[in-house]
């Protein structure tokens, strides 16, 4: 090799190409951009990553990200609704849609559909505690419409049946813009089962 | 906002979404991947970026990347060929193709086609020095086939005309897989002008 092949640069390309959606080519492009913008990008990115590594953790109570040196939002206020999601990405999507403005509970995954695997990292018991301790009036189950997501929703429903909290889950049916011709049987079944009266106004 | 919106995480998403090929959505996906792989990815990436920021600079002689605490490859050995490219990305492409294994000179851009702009960041005089000082026998001009790239190549050719070095430039013609029907006039003109005898073996 007659280009210098600085080891740190090679390492950087390797790490970046492991990130989702990126490969060796796009990683190289990113590394060049970083090197060509030392102060504005490379330095900023380095410092911000270090900051996140040092100071951002997941709250053990609600699963959300929090700063190590401040209390999580889940401890601070009274709230009436909790939206239960599988992971942070799901929360971000719901949040950026603006459809829901309440509090979240991030499970950190789903229960396995089969009993074989144990999933002790899930924040299930802390959800029950949050509901009991606070004046929560509604738990909205926003887990995915997969077998695992629905298994988890059922489990939560079951665990909360003794409390007086209202439990709801996201409606299933036709997605907006969905054509009947291309719908799968499961969605079609849900759409028929959950059909509602036509509003006449 | 009722998700915690940790500032460092928001900042990280913003910076990453500025990188080439990435937007807010892919940046969020990358940030989540990093947070979910603290030690393996987040820490490694942070340290490697810091290392690159601290220890990787561009050599002022040949334009290549080098480690601050070691000599650049351009100072160390005798070499007979120099391939002149516009930027590091071009060098990486040539290098990974395996077509050329010699030394490089990275200009850091091109001369402007019009005289109006000055481009004093270009490593042009150091190229002349390298050719004079070393026993270089061939300078391969591998600048782009754009107006600016060709202007730069002409300028270098002109600057080196007093030295005895052989100057060559990349062939122009049909790209491999190129269909005549879709070729532009310029490429077609080059392909005709540079036509060669058919080998009969």
Q: How many distinct beta strands of chain A?
A: 6
Strand content of chain A is: 5-15%
Mean pLDDT of chain A: 87
**Computed CA radius of gyration of chain A, to the nearest angstrom:** 22 Å
CATH third-level topology of the domain at 78-169 in chain A: Dna Topoisomerase Vi A Subunit, Chain: A, domain 2
Oligomer: homodimer
CATH class of the domain at 78-169 in chain A: Alpha Beta
SSE run of chain A: HHHEEHEHEHEHEH
State the helicity of chain A in percent bands. Answer: 40-55%
* Largest sheet: number of strands, sense, barrel closure of chain A: 4 strands, parallel
Secondary-structure-derived class of chain A: alpha/beta
- Side by side, the strands of the main sheet of chain A go 4-3-5-6
- Uncertain runs of chain A are none
Q: Which protein chains are joined by the largest interface, and how many residues does each one contribute?
A: A-B, 58 and 59 residues
Q: Distance between termini of chain A? A: 75 Å
Any guess at the CATH architecture of the domain at 78-169 in chain A? 3-Layer(aba) Sandwich
Please tell me about this protein's structure.
- 2 copies of one chain form a homodimer.
- The radius of gyration of chain A is 22 Å and the shape is globular.
- The mean pLDDT of chain A is 87.
- Chain A has 201 residues and is an alpha/beta fold.
- The longest helix of chain A has 18 residues.
- In chain A, strand 1 and strand 2 form a beta hairpin.
- Chain A has a 4-stranded parallel sheet with strand order 4-3-5-6. The first copy, chain A, has a two-stranded antiparallel sheet with strand order 1-2.
- Chain A has a domain of 92 residues: Dna Topoisomerase Vi A Subunit, Chain: A, domain 2 (3-Layer(aba) Sandwich).
- In chain A, helix 1 packs across helix 2.
- In chain A, 43% of the residues lie in helices and 11% in strands.
């Amino acid at each position: 090799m007659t280009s210098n092949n600085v080891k740190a640069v090679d390492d950087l390309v390797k790490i970046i190409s492991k990130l989702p959606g990126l490969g060796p080519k796009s990683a190289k492009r990113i590394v060049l951009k970083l090197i060509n913008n030392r102060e504005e990008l490379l330095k900023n990115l380095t410092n911000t990553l270090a900051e996140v590594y040092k100071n951002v953790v997941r709250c053990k109570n609600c699963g959300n990200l929090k700063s190590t040196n401040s209390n999580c939002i889940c401890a601070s206020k009274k709230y009436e609704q909790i939206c239960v999601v599988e992971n942070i990405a799901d929360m971000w999507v719901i949040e950026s849609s603006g459809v829901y403005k309440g509090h979240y509970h991030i499970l950190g995954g789903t229960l396995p559909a089969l009993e074989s695997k144990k999933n002790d990292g899930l924040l299930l018991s802390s959800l029950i505690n949050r509901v009991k301790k606070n004046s929560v009036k509604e738990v909205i189950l926003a887990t995915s419409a997969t077998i695992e997501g629905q298994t988890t929703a059922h489990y939560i429903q079951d665990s909360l049946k003794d409390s007086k909290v209202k439990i709801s889950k996201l409606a299933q049916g036709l997605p907006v813009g969905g054509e009947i011709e291309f719908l799968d049987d499961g969605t079609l079944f849900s759409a028929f089962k959950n059909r509602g009266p036509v509003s006449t106004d």
